[in-house]
Specification:
This protein has helices at about 5-15, 15-20, 25-30, 35-40, 85, 130-135, 150-155; strands spanning about 25, 45-50, 55-65, 95-100, 100-110, 115-125, 170-175, 185, 200-205. It is α+β, with helices and mostly antiparallel strands and about 220 residues long. It has one domain (about 5-220): 3-methyladenine DNA Glycosylase, Chain A. The longest helix has 12 residues, at about 5-15. It is globular, with a radius of gyration of 16 Å. The relative contact order is 0.21. The structure holds a DNA duplex (13 and 13 nucleotides).
Amino acid sequence: MDYGLYEQVQVRLVGDDSLVKSSILSRAFYERGSVTVAKELLGKFVVRVVGRNRLVGRIVEVEAYRGFDDPASHAFRGITPRTTPMFGEPGHAYVYFTYGNHYCFNVTTERTGVAGAVLIRALEPVEGLNVMKRFRPHVSTLEITNGPGKLTKALCIDKALNKIDLTKCGPLFLRGNDSERVDIACSVRIGITAGTDRLWRFFVPGNPYVSRFERKLSRT
DNA sequence: CTCTCGATTACCT
DNA sequence: GGTAATCGAGAGC
């Protein structure tokens, strides 16, 4: 498959003005149900400022997590030191370390006091690809941000950014347009053993930066 | 204090 | 497609 051509098409589809026209996502955007926010995050932009570099990726895959009613969520058993951000004000980063190697980046949702977050699972590079490649040497462009641990490495996101306010124009924030309309596919969330009855993983079907394509969309 | 195992990735066959 | 790497959160004693 000729991904080189595909990437050119994607760049044109995303277009520079889509990012330019976008505005920073507000508190109100995040202060809704996790599933709603998750779907609407597809097509939005993650912006990471590292020194003089601006790294931007378009969100193509997410997963919604909730609280006491979601057995797959870190927040299922209540508030702990780690899960504090999930219970706090919406629109903050929840960054956690997993498998001894990787960081995962979530945005917090739901109103203050109610647990919720959306895991950002994959991005399509839009700006700063060369810098991303410096953070992730020796991997092909298609592998640069096509997984939750991969994109945090490419964008230099670690626990230093945990709890950061994403509605402010700082080192990490999100931008988007209301007009962004993208196709949405869903599936079971990946890497969980409980809560598999919910199809709370959402992705842009056919986008080559999606971490994996489910052969069957579980329907149990 | 100790033990288990994870919202993963990379590298091997 | 199988599995080692790697470490800290959270649970249990």
